[in-house]
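User: hey, got a sec? need ABC-type multidrug transport system, ATPase component folded
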Amino acid sequence: MIEVKNLTKQYKDKVVLRDINWTIGSGVFGLLGENGAGKSTFLKLLATLLEPTSGEIIIDGKDLGTEKSEVRKQLGYLPQEFDFYSRLTGFEMLDYFAVLKGMLQKEIRHDHIYHLMTTFNLLKVKDKRISNYSYGMKQRLGIIQAMLGNPKLLILDEPTVGLDLVECNRIHHIISELGKNRTIIYSTHIFADIEACCTDVSILHKGDMVFHDSVDKLAMGFSNITEGYIAMLKTWKGTDV
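Assistant: Yep! Here you go:
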């Protein structure tokens, strides 16, 4: 379970997140919002990469303010922008990160990597340098990196960017299955991603959490969640959309 209490993040005079209260359990939770809404900042706070200005974040009973190292052992994070050691092969890079995550038994570690690369259709290129990977391959490699060690909390920031429809569908299926026994936070601007694999969705708008409920509830009375999203923002403090 993740509990966020009165969370605020401010840079000098600019408030990026304002008094966020948010609680989720296991499952796949979508996070929607326009550019500048505060999504990436929110995810970085959950991933222990930023410190809040005020408020609390509690993950599985552990307070990020005092037990950050313990929380990090339980989470995997895919940032929106990331880079790799391009001279390494895909397998070498994953092996390196797996060791950093504490997977020290070589046979178990390699079996784990082989399984993930097979799942994401990358096993055939495991011995190719990352510099020769396509954008979509690198994106899949980034998702695998986040999944190393089988984390209880998986934080994904725009995981399907650059992927074709077939790979998007593959990842939607994998994420839906993974969400049965862990918490996955799936940040995206693509409404189809939310509809494909999320049961619940939250919306950030100009630093405020303006919606947190089921995907069905957002679409209620509309033909799809896109219409529900637009209508909801129009009613939020007179926002123009």
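Quick note: The longest strand covers residues 14-24. Let me know if you need anything else on ABC-type multidrug transport system, ATPase component.
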